[in-house]
Structures are given as structure tokens and as C-alpha cells.
Amino acid sequence: IIFLKMARKKRRTRGTYNPSRQEMNGSKLELGRVLKPPPEERLI
Amino acid sequence: YPMQTYGEDSVRIVQLQKTNEPLGATVRNDGDAVIIGRIVKGGTAEKSGLLHEGDEILEVNGIDMRGKNINDVSDLLANMSGTITFMIIPTGGFTPKPSPRQQEELIHVKAMFNYDPEEDIYIPCRELGISFMKGDILHVISTDDANWWQAYREGEREHQSLAGLIPSRNFQEQRERNKIMLENEAKENKKKSQTCSCGRRDKKRKRKSMYETEEILTYEEVEIYYPQPNRKRPIVLIGPRNVGRHELRSRLMESDIDRFAAAVPHTSRPARGDEVNGKDYHFVTKAEFEADIVSNKFVEHGELEKNLYGTSLDAVQQVINTGKICILVLHPESLQVLKSSDLKPYIVFVYPPNMEKLRQMQKNFYPDTTITDDMLKEIIERGREMEDKYGHFFDYILVNQDMDRAYDELLQEINRLEVEPQWVPIQWVDS
To answer: B67 to chain A, minimum CA–CA distance in Å?
Structure first.
């Protein structure tokens, strides 16, 4: 159960990152921070 | 009924008709939640207007979605068709309805870099990624996401209802700038650990600043240009030495002297006996020639045995004015000058074939010369370098496997240019 929780937590922190809305908006930010892989999306 | 759990007001039931094709939306996980990541242009989801980015999907046809991994959600939906009932919590955030003007706005761009989504770790949805090559025309239909544009590749709209994802101009620029920065840092670190206190430092620093000003090639905006019968686009042949450019040019000119012409070059060399000024060359003094260089009148120029030779923009324009197609063989360095002129050149890159084909061609042309492998490798290598450095200028790549075939292909392309509309830099059409 602990393991599951940890996995979930990990996912949560990854999931909240939304580069398209918050960080970018055309502004020039330091790249090291901006260029993280975004949360994965799948097609439905 | 689970509705109560979320409060009746906040839950909405949405029904969509699905075929075997995807609905055209993406989902992402946010904790336990399954959230609509984006709506893709051209799909059922977009056309219905019922799903929005940020909506949480609670149920699909009565199946609970909370806690499900998006891979499973994707598989599940892939196997469904007919009426699909979604229970969603609409996005809390305000999503501005795009104005009709924005919706119609379509940007056409020419790609100036190669892109393969399979190798891109940053693409949010790999299955939507479209690959393209330098020179491909892309129709950008949505720039709503600052990082990832939705686009179709030229000619694929008919076969593909859903748009694809490409990196936005900003994103690509930032990524490249980042790459250059990291490379420079790596070099800097390497140097620090290597050098003693000798005077090499300044030299490297200079090189670094050179990299920083390097132009980052992303997309070039293009517009449709309709052929004009009395204003033929000059054909420019670019390529390594000995790849057959001069041969192609003379074959064209011999085939139809009323249709094709070369620009009359300038020279500072005195005219020889039977040479006619304005026909063989424009004969000018060295001082005149040098003044014209200073005032940027030349597409390119060079020196041979103390005499100056060059092709002027005016000379090309004169051919255009006669209604003929000007055929030019130029160095790739002159492409920038040509492109910023109003001559609307069509750039053909003549690319060397493999070693064996190239050997055969060279043998046909220079039967008395021994051709070494190194000579052939040199041509091929130079061709690669040119494509790498100047590839974004090229309109057409002609692989010269065989002179007759290459000639036919080139002629066919020139014929096409006279009847079909073409994509050209937007400045050429606006001005």
C-alpha cells in the first residue's frame, strides 16, 4: 500500500505540471525549467 | 447514484457519436482524475463543441474513470463505437471561445528543420505528432497552445481528418537555444579542465559569441503565388562541383533558346576580338566593377587571373523582362542575397547519387581522367554539408543519378512551375 501511495504521489506531482497554460505563454523563461517533458496525453 | 458525490450542478452528461475513428481529444492523468488535455481540430469532439480542455471525465458509458491510467482509457475508447455517454465535470477555468476570425486564420509555413515525433521526448501526445522534413509545407490551424501547434502537412488533409501536433515556433527556438547553451557550457567546462594558462582562452570565447548570434531556423511563413506568364521565375542550380549543374544548364538552353537564357555576366577583362558587349559579357572597368560590388549589385562575384567576374541582379532581371526563364548556376552563399531580392528565384539543389552511380557519370563526362574514390567521396560529402547548411533555402531536391533522367525531371519541374501555384515567402507576395 505504501508503494502504491508513493507511485500515486509521484504521478500527482507530474500531472500538475501544465506548461501550455502556466509557464510559457510566449514568455522567455530559463530553459532548464521550461524544458521538462509535459504530462503524457493519449488520444481518445 | 454517483451524481450526488460531486454535486448536481457541476456534473454534465454529454453524448457523442463515435465511429472506429478516435473522437479527437486527448486525456491526461492528474492524480486520480482523467482530464481532457486537448481538443484536436477536425474530430468529432471538436465539431460537437461538447468537450473542453480541462474537463474531468468521471464516467464513460457507465464505466468509472477515476483512478484509471490514460493508456487504459485510450484502449477502452478505441474499442467503443456508437453513442458514447460521458459524465464530466466541466472545466472550472474560463476557456475563451475563439472568435470566428481567429478560427478561420490559417498560417502556412515552410519547415526549415527536420522533425520526427518519435525522437521527441517533449511532445505531449506522440500518436498525434507529425513528422516533416526541411522544405515541407505545413498548414497551421491552431496556435491555442503556445508550445504545440495543430497542423496538417500539405496534401494530407484529404487523407487525414485529425490535425497533428508540431512544436510551435517559440518552443522550437527555445529548445534549440537551450541546446546551443548546453553545448557551449560543455565546451567551456572541458576547456577549464584542460587548459593551462596559455593564451587560448580568448579565441574560444570569440567562438562562443559566434554561436550565440547563430540564427535558429524554425518555420518560414509562406503564401500562394500564381505563375505569371510574363514574369518567369529564375531557376537556380545549387550543388557541389562536378555534380552536373553546368551540363543541366547547357542542355536546357540548347533545348529551347527562345525559352531559356543565362544572365549576361560582368567582367573587368577587356573584350576579345569577336566578343560583343552586352551579349557575351558586360565589359566594365575594374573601378566600375568594384563600385558595383560595394553597392550590392551582384548576386555573386569572384576573381580569375586578376580579372573580376560576376552576375548582377540587374542581369537576371533583364532576362526576366524578355519573358525567358533565367537559368543560374550559383554558390549557395549567394542564396541569401537572391532571396531578399524581388526576383523570386526557384532553388533546385542538385544532389549527388551514391558512389557507383557518381563514378559512372564522371566516367561518361571525363573519359580521360582517372577518378579516385576520394574525389567521389569529396563530392558526396560536400553535397551533404550543403544540404545541412543551406537546405532550408531549397525548393526542390534533384538527385542526379543519371544525366538524362535528371534533365527530364528538371524540365518537368520547370513546366509545372509555369502552370501550378507555388508556396513562396510571404514577403514576395505582399510587396
So the answer is: 10
Whether residue B391 contacts residue B384, with contact meaning beta carbons closer than 8 Å, is answered with no
CB nearest to B74's CB, from A15, A34, A44: A44
Could you give the percent of chain A with pLDDT greater than 90? 11
Those residues of chain B that have pLDDT short of 50 are: 1-4, 100-101, 197-212
Cell of B166: 508540431
Q: To the nearest whole angstrom, how far is the Cα of B10 from the nearest Cα of chain A? A: 21
Q: Which value does ipTM take for this structure?
A: 0.76
* Residue B200 to chain A, least CA–CA distance (Å): 29
Contacts of B40 in chain A (CB under 8 A): 43
Calpha distance B158→B177 (Å, rounded): 36
Q: DSSP per residue over B36-62, as a string?
A: EEEE-TTSHHHHHT---TTPEEEEETT
Q: Are B30 and A8 inside 8 Å of each other by CB?
A: no
- Point out the residue among A8, A19, A40 whose CB comes nearest to the CB of B147: A19
Task: Give the pLDDT confidence score for residue B10 in this predicted structure.
Answer: 83
Encode pLDDT of B61-109 as tens digits.
999 999 999 999 999 999 999 999 999 999 865 555 555 445 556 899 9
User: pTM of whole model > 0.90?
Assistant: no
Closest CA to B400 of B391, B411, B409, B389: B409
Which residues does chain A have within 8 Å of residue B160's beta carbon, measured at their own beta carbons?
Answer: none
Q: Say what the alpha-carbon torsion angle B242, B244, B245, B250 is, to the nearest 10 degrees.
A: 130
pLDDT of amino acid A17: 41
